[in-house]
């Protein structure tokens, strides 16, 4: 990972505040929070080569810190090892058991493979709410009730950065303003890179 200095952090804050990304991620995060009300009912799945570990950890933190049990995700993995702890042993069969009142959150920077699209379609048909954070996958976007697209050539926000913004927005109480999200993002960036020094 390339270290980020204080000047880059300051620029990122300024650039994002003028692009609409904070507002779009806030809206998507709000949808995630509103639909994820059942403890254990937020099913988080990625693509075969990319389990969304980082996002799972952030959502778990937001759930705990904000006392929002529904945001604690169930990480669904493509090939969970048999000797993994129970919470890391949840396989794709969990998607087949998705039902009304649960949320399936698909995180796919690259196109979702057909087996995942089929499971997403089945989960939607059984009443689960489908959200997608994707990099331009039209088929996945077409199956989702809500989606946020981060184009691969987006110069201002990386796919990983979007995950940070979405998890922070999901943890934000609905009555708070976009300025509250900006303050939380600033605290997160200060934690990662240290405070801005003039």
Structural write-up:
This protein has helices at 6-17, 21-35, 53-66, 93-96, 114-125, 138-143, 159-171, 178-193, and strands at 42-45, 74-76, 103-108, 129-134, 146-149. 46% of the residues lie in helices and 12% in strands. 37% of the residues are buried. Helix 6 (138-143) links the parallel strand 4 (129-134) and strand 5 (146-149). The protein has a five-stranded parallel beta sheet, sandwiched between helices. The protein contains eight helices and five strands, in the order H-H-E-H-E-H-E-H-E-H-E-H-H.
Features:
198 residues, five-stranded parallel β-sheet, 5 strands
Quick summary:
The protein is of the alpha/beta class. 46% of the residues lie in helices and 12% in strands.
Q: What is the straight-line distance between the termini?
A: 25 Å
| Shape type | globular
Number of strands: 5
Q: How much of the residues is beta strand, in percent? A: 5-15%
Oligomer: single chain
Structural class based on helices, strands and sheet pairing: alpha/beta
Uncertain spans: 1-6
Query: Which radius of gyration do the C-alpha atoms yield?
Result: 17 Å
**Mean pLDDT, nearest integer?**
84
Strands of the widest sheet, in order across it, are: 2-1-3-4-5
* Major pleated sheet: 5 strands, parallel
Determine the number of helices (DSSP H or I, runs of at least 4 residues).
8
Any chance you could write out the topology, listing elements then pairs?
Blueprint: H1 6-17, H2 21-35, E1 42-45, H3 53-66, E2 74-76, H4 93-96, E3 103-108, H5 114-125, E4 129-134, H6 138-143, E5 146-149, H7 159-171, H8 178-193
Helix pairs in contact: 1-8, 2-7, 3-7
């Amino acid at each position: 990972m390339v270290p980020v200095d204080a000047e880059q952090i300051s620029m990122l804050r300024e650039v994002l505040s003028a692009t609409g990304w904070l507002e779009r991620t806030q809206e998507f995060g709000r949808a995630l929070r509103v639909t994820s009300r059942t403890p254990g009912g937020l099913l988080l799945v990625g693509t075969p080569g990319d389990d969304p570990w980082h996002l799972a950890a952030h959502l778990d933190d937001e759930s705990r810190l904000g006392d929002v049990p529904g945001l604690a995700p169930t990480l669904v993995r493509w090939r969970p090892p048999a000797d993994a702890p129970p919470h890391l042993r949840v396989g794709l069969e969990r998607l087949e058991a998705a039902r009304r009142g649960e949320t399936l959150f698909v995180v796919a920077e690259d196109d979702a493979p057909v087996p995942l699209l089929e499971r997403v379609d089945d989960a939607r048909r059984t009443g689960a709410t489908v959200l997608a954070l994707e990099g331009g996958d039209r088929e996945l976007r077409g199956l989702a009730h809500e989606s946020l697209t981060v184009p691969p050539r987006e110069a201002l926000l990386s796919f990983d950065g979007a995950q940070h913004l979405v998890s922070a927005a999901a943890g934000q109480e609905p009555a708070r303003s976009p300025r509250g999200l900006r303050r939380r993002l600033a605290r997160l960036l200060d934690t990662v890179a240290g405070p801005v020094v003039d």
